[in-house]
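**User:** You know discrete backbone vocabularies at least as well as I do. Would you mind producing a protein record, from residues through to fold? Write it directly below this note and I will take it from there.

**Assistant:**
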Amino acid sequence: MNRTNPDNWKSDIARSVDMYNAWFLEFAPVAFRETRVKTTVQVEQALEKTAYLTDLSAKTLQRDPGVLPVLRMSTCPPIAVDRLVGLSGASKNLIGCMEEGSLPARAVLENLLQDLEKIAAIVGKMADPDIFVWLERSKKPNEAELYRAATIVADRLCGSIANPIIKNAQEKRQLAAIGAWLEKRGYVPLTPGFRFNQMPPGTFSFRLNVPVKADGEQRSWNIPVDAVIQPRTAADGALPLLVEAKSAGDYTNPNKRRKEEATKITQLRRTYGAGVRFVLFLCGYFDSGYLGYEAAEGIDWVWENRIEDFLEFGI
């Protein structure tokens, strides 16, 4: 479809970049604000669990390890994960687990409490007095002070994960665009519980785990596929079209991760044969270097700004 037409790549890239930029200017701030509102509530809850930063102790962190990301953004300056490891001398594995909201399953209690105390001491020493103005007095924060502090910390948290926020919003929009286009053509979404290789004609599904096997091994594992579409004209037992939705706000990241798609199609072909069809659904900054790499791996693509190209794959 597109991989064999390199003369069109330059103009296709320009139109795709324009589409991404138009979306970003209109919707990215909304996605960021919505996430900030939710994060502000989470920060308020974390502050409450630590008695508004007046009860920073090993026992508090043991009870609620998931407050650590909030605590890292509550210091002056905010502390990155690796920096906290260096400053506190605590186990990197412990801090990594706390970032995910848990504690190491096999930690020795005495060592665990010692490390948690080190973390609490660093946060307590570096807590930002300009944000948490109540720390210099004996009274609890009033509602306005708490909301102001929670909003500032939420901004810091969202700023540190801005790219994932935008990526998730864009991916959700891309899948919605595919779904709307398919339903307009009479395709029906499938509910969970169907077999990947037994999809009825004229159906589709999102975020499906597809089992694949390693070369020469019997065991299998699942790889995620963003969209699976079974053409209306498909014969019994035919494999559906597999679609990976990808968006990018710059040219650097796609080229860093371009091998992921090559690995995925290799696993799929090894399991289901050379006839498996795997395409990309692209929006944004994908340069000719990225496209050339994917084309060399036999991977084709559909530009979101020209979604009707799915027709060329029998959809």
The chain has two domains: 6-27+163-313, 35-161.
